[in-house]
Amino acid sequence: MEKQADIGVFGGSGFYSFLEDVETIKVDTPYGAPSDKIALVTVGNKKVAFMPRHGRDHDLPPHAIPYRANLYAMKQLGVTRIIGPCAAGSLQPHVKPGDFVICDQFVDRTKGRKDTFYDGPVTTHISTADPYCPELRELAIKAAEKLGISYHPRGTVVVIQGPRFSTRAESRWFSSMGWEVINMTQYPECVLARELGMCYVNISLITDYDVGLEGREDIRPVTHEEVLRVFRENNERLRSLLFELIESIPDQRGCECERVLEEGRLG
Predict the structure, then answer these.
(1) Taking the CA of residue 75 as centre, how many other CA atoms within 13 Å lie in the half-sphere pointing to its CB?
(2) How does the average pLDDT of the chain come out, rounded?
(3) Is position 210 annotated as part of the catalytic site?
(4) What is the CATH architecture of 7-263?
């Protein structure tokens, strides 16, 4: 397939109003159909491919998203960098609704998701010690600083299976571990990008405090409607941050992400 984009963006809840004057294309993959058609746009001088990870009508719950098809479709278009913004909950008092977190670690609590492209015959063990691209993370931090946006330069996101939200006991456990963010889509999205040699950065928009936050028994259980409301209220800030980040990305990569497979193959 002819190269059509350098940067890919997976949008989450409430994210679909960002784009204007787009060309939409359908991409087929060996892993089935992606979540939706891909929108091709130009941001500054960058060609960007945008895909709503839940589908444009939000008809795919987190556990049913075709993550492998989504990443492979981006790869087929020539994408080398992926930006994965998402709505997320806070597990710590200092991480407030409306804040952004540029995550540097994840903890996987999902089950049964197709989470690798390498089922054999070549045995492949990629390193995920540092799962997010350091170059893109640094650029995202600089973009947030430039715009004066409330953000946290690092954080661990615990990824739960969904579609249900956590019990209070589960949430208290996650908080007690010191993890900052809770979400349902970061795994295996970031790992699949890494398996394909693509850079990946997450920007979590905090929409709520999770129910088990210590000392905050007044917190009401989160609802999907509340998540979308906060996301909509912060849509313009997220748009500004993403566009600033996209325009700052250099043409040539200065990281090791594309070489991950060189050390992950046996034989």
Answers:
(1) 20
(2) 89
(3) yes
(4) 3-Layer(aba) Sandwich (3.40)
Q: Give pTM, 2 decimals.
A: 0.92
Q: Is-contact 97 130, C-beta < 8 A?
A: no
Task: State the average pLDDT over residues 4-13.
Answer: 84
Amino acid letter at 205? L
- The answer to whether residues 248 and 254 touch, using CB atoms and an 8 Å cutoff, is no
Residue pair 6/24 in contact (Cβ under 8 Å)? The answer is no
Q: Which of 36, 57, 208, 251 is catalytic?
A: 208
132-186 pLDDT, tens digit per residue, is 999 999 999 999 999 999 999 999 999 999 999 999 999 999 999 999 999 999 9
Catalytic residue among 36, 99, 104, 210: 210
Neighbours of 105 (CB within 10 A): 17
